[in-house]
Automatic annotation (TrEMBL):
Domain of life of the organism encoding this protein: Bacteria
Protein name per Swiss-Prot or TrEMBL: DUF2000 domain-containing protein
Signal peptide per UniProt: none
Family annotation (Pfam families): DUF2000 (PF09391)
Amino acid sequence: MNAVYEKCAFVIDEDLAPGLAMNTVAALSMSVGRFVEGIVGDAVKDADGRTHTGITAIPLPVLKGEATDLRDIVLKAAGMPEVFVVDFTAVAQSSRSYEEYTGRTAKLPTAELPYIGIAVCGSRSAVAKLTGSLPLYR
């Protein structure tokens, strides 16, 4: 990704059990960290001179929504080239291998995928347009 993103929001299905929700955020975070250039800041030194690995340099709110909210965001974002989306589905979470996941996903149209979490990265206004009405995950 060559774009510079100002914000990245995670939206998690409100019906997921807490452990599955944390797993979903972790999986999405790995993909965002890999594909969104510049999202992780440089290492930081403390007063003792010890180095601490860089962490995210932009806001990463975790929000919750209904499964239909997640699907709607994915479909709307498809028409917004300035937005980067990573999705995580129940198919991915329940597959025993990446091969099984890709095979099962290939049989489902986008609108029918069972989304359980998404990460939306872009400008503050674009991310707010897609996720602004959703509450924080608490």
